Amino acid sequence: MSNVLEVIGIEKKYPGVIANRDVSLQVREGSIHAIIGENGAGKSTLMKSLYGLIRPDAGQIKVFGSEVNLKSPQDAIELGIGMVHQHFKLADNATVLENVILGSEPTRFGFVVKYDQARKKLLEITKNYGLDIDPDESLSNLGVGERQRVEIAKVLFRGAKILILDEPTAVLVPQEVDELFANLRELVKNGLTVLFISHKLDEVLSIADDITIMRQGTTVATRKPKETNKKELAELMVGGELPKPKAGELKVSSESILSIKSAAYSRADGREILHDVNLELHGGEIVGLAGVEGNGQSELIELIMGLAQPSAGSVQVLGLDAATTLTREIRNAGVAYIPQDRQRDGLLMSAPLWENRILGHQFADPMAKGVWVNKGAAIEDSKRVVDEFDVRTPGINVLASALSGGNQQKFIVGRELTGDPKLIVAAQPTRGVDVGAQAIIWDHLMQARSKGAGILLVTADLEELFSLSDRIAVIYSGTIVSILNPAKTTPEDLGLAMTGAKSA
Amino acid sequence: MTKSRIFWGTIAPTAAILNSLLFVYIILKIRGVDPVEMFKLMVSYGFDPRNLVSEINQTIAYYMAGVAAAIGFKMLLFNIGIDGQYRMGAFFGAVVGAAVSLPPILHVLIIIVTAMLAGGLWAAIAGYLKVKRGVNEVISNIMLNFIAAAIIAFLLSPNLLGSLPEGSQNLQTKPIPQSGQMPTIKAFEGEIYSVIFLALFVGIAYWVMLNKTVFGFNLRATGLSFRAARASGVNAPGMIFITTVLSGAIAGLVGMGTLLSETYSYSMAFPSGYAFTGLALALLGRNHPVGIFFAAFLWSFLERSAPVLEFEGVPPEIVIVMQGTIVLSIVIAYEVVARINLRQQQRAVGSVNAESVSNQAANVKESK
């Protein structure tokens, strides 16, 4: 079989980070090719390059043997590359057929849509590939699995020969996963090629013909399922060597700062996100929460901050019951919160920096004096944060949106570490910041720890996890599956725990 | 900093008004009228002392509507329900004012508080529906405007709360006695409502609340980013509800000047349309208490001086065209100014970064 898609030495740099370097990939015709890797391993960057969403700085992409220069998704589609996004891009109030043809409607005179012709073509596709969907069904009646089939049909309708599926199983329940895999096998049987991105080793081993592993922006190996096993894949994903824990004396206090006992959380639609979570955090230690994104980390943080209520169990923060305590009281008690999504949860983007200094601290001295905002103190302390954390800005009257992401993050960290908090909930504290800023932030977190603060560090960055954590809690599928000692943990242990292959 | 802020704050409304003048100039020119003459005529008529007084009185009502809309805008709420809230306020203020007998100042206070309560409670319906049921406030408020008008029409029937004075076709509430009336200020050749002091107070209180208090910070934070406000510890849905009620309470004051200093009773003759005007004024005045004042005065001035155009054979509706183009231009002008502003700041941030990078490079060279 020949290669339908070939990637040779792709490189993509963003300011401060190298997202892809020396990425090479060979995809055989009619195969299911899986790409696995940690968060931030560069999978999405590679897929964006292949779909023409971004342009690599160096390297070649060959499609059906000839080198191509993809300037936009339109170019990719014309070459027969189709993308099924993880988050569906469908219109709820239209029918399946309308959704499928939207944007590439067959028309008469350029404006009259030829629905009959489109329906015939769609029915042919669904019949040939065994995609079970009714063209005239309204999309609002469809479940997640069916919606995904609509997305696939949409891509096939545009004549795709190579399908890229971005973590397609993340949103599916097990039966739906089986259906999807049946569909994928049908597709390759008909000569199409599937590129499949995943975190889950079991799935990859069961469906893929080839597995390429990515780590730290590059492709490290390609294996066939028969020639490998979960252990090896996990090790390849996480890397042979883990960063050594930072030397630093550990002065763990007996005071329990955060105590989570058999906590569960269900969404309004009844879906259970967290179950039986147990975690203890003491003053003076950093507990790293490791896990593939979307396994309940965000929800756990919401429970701790009093932004959501547990459906069972208890969450005690500094002796307060987080289920019945207001977020502002939790914050006032000495909890600092560095949110994962800094622009949406951590900043008022169109407000000046000094006002952002107040955010989250407006209910206590010194940012508030009774019912009044203390503008003077806010301005003074903003200047201090800008200095101490090296926030690159001409002044504190600048809007938060004018700063770069890394500088926004430094400002948030500086703000939250003010006033010696007792518990610090830090979610991805150095995501997207440059190396220098990362060092500053790490240093301040370590200082806070030696001053006796307990830190819950939620991070997808393994280096950060291992350099800072005193203990590592691994979360998988809504519960903490193991607590690891970073000094004694092998990459294999961590990789297996994070992918749910082992529960301790 | 302050100087440039005032400059950037006033350049957009000025540009919008100039743009609208230009548009009207062209229209008048096409009609074969001399636009400059027209404008001169409007100005001399509008600034005639007798007209000035009625413009000021109208400005008071518009100002309250503008501030009510601005409070909503700060929360990204489009309070199109100002009309209904103002009616409820004026009506129940009139009913309670006529029903009680109290010493003078207290009597007036009771009426004002009643009006604010009525307006606020009416708005609370829309606030509750938005926060608890996710109903868009524009839709609920439009319907609430109709419902308010219908309820008042029903309650105004003579056997309920209304009366039909002899020789009048106009149903109205019973008159408020002397002790509940507010004096007027003799100025120029007319009488200015003393409610102007209440409007002044509302404007100052609005500004202080918004910029100086924690409550105002929370309000603005929630309007800027619901999620960030929530994560910071603000009860964001609660803030949306309270803001809606506050906006309604201020809207309840729109009719006070007319009620307490002129008619002393509520009737079906009370004008409508305060919602649209209020929203336009808040937009033009950039939600700033001083800006809204100028906007309100401009609106009153244009409306008052429109009839003079008729003597010259120009339809007075040209003023509505002017108001419309001002509102359209202002939306665009603010967006343009905001973008220029952000770009300038980004450039400033960029130059700081470049500086530090070159410093670093220099340091590296030195160390070598």
Instruction: Provide the helix percentage of chain A.
Output: 25-40%
Spatial separation of the terminal alpha carbons of chain A: 43 Å
Largest interface comes to: A-B, 43 and 31 residues
User: What is the arithmetic mean of pLDDT of chain A?
Assistant: 87
What is the CATH domain class of the largest domain in chain B? Mainly Alpha
What does the main sheet of chain B amount to?
Answer: 2 strands, antiparallel
Q: Roughly what is the average pLDDT of chain B, rounded to an integer?
A: 89
Percent of residues of chain B in beta strands?
under 5%
- Predict the CATH topology of the largest domain in chain A: Rossmann fold
Spans of at least 5 consecutive residues with low confidence of chain B? 360-368
**Tally of DSSP β-strands of chain A:** 24
Nearest-angstrom radius of gyration of chain B?
Answer: 24 Å
The overall number of domains of chain A is: 2
Model description:
The complex is a heterodimer of chains A (504) and B (368). The longest helix of chain A has 16 residues, at 174-189. Chain A folds into 2 domains: 3-238, 3-Layer(aba) Sandwich (Rossmann fold); 256-334 and 421-498, P-loop containing nucleotide triphosphate hydrolases (Rossmann fold). The model of chain A has no long low-confidence stretch (mean pLDDT 87). Chain A contains 17 helices and 24 strands. Chain A is an alpha/beta fold. Chain B is built from 15 helices and 4 strands. Chain B has helices at residues 2-31, 35-46, 49-74, 82-99, 104-133, 137-155, 195-212, 214-224, 226-231, 236-251, 256-263, 274-284, 289-305, 307-311, 318-367; strands at 162-163, 172-173, 184-187, 190-193. In chain B, a hairpin with an 8-residue loop joins strand 1 (162-163) and strand 2 (172-173). In chain B, helix 5 crosses helix 6. The A-B interface holds A 305, 307, 326-332, 337, 339, 341, 344-351, 355, 358-360, 362-363, 368, 371-373, 375, 392-395, 397-399, 401-404, 407 and B 1, 211-218, 220-221, 224-225, 227-235, 342, 345-346, 348-349, 351-353, 356.
